[in-house]
Design a protein that fits this description.
The chain has about 60 residues and is mainly α. It has a domain of about 40 residues.
Length: about 60
């Protein structure tokens, strides 16, 4: 796909465009975004079991 020369050229262009101070900030924000994304995935896995429990309780209340 990309050779080592292309990656080096891209890295130099990124450093020139954004500066050396912006790169660590960008990496930190990517790490935080990844962490929040994984947290959201874990929360969504836990929610359906609680939703089905409450919906079955509501169904039994509606039937009576």
């Amino acid at each position: 796909m990309f050779g080592s020369h292309e990656i080096i050229v891209i890295a130099i262009i990124v450093l020139v465009l954004f500066g050396s101070a912006a790169i660590p900030k960008f990496a930190k924000s990517l790490g935080l975004a990844k962490k929040e994304f994984e947290k959201g995935l874990n929360e969504s896995d836990q929610e359906p079991s609680s939703d089905t429990d409450t919906s079955s309780k509501q169904d039994s209340k509606d039937k009576s």
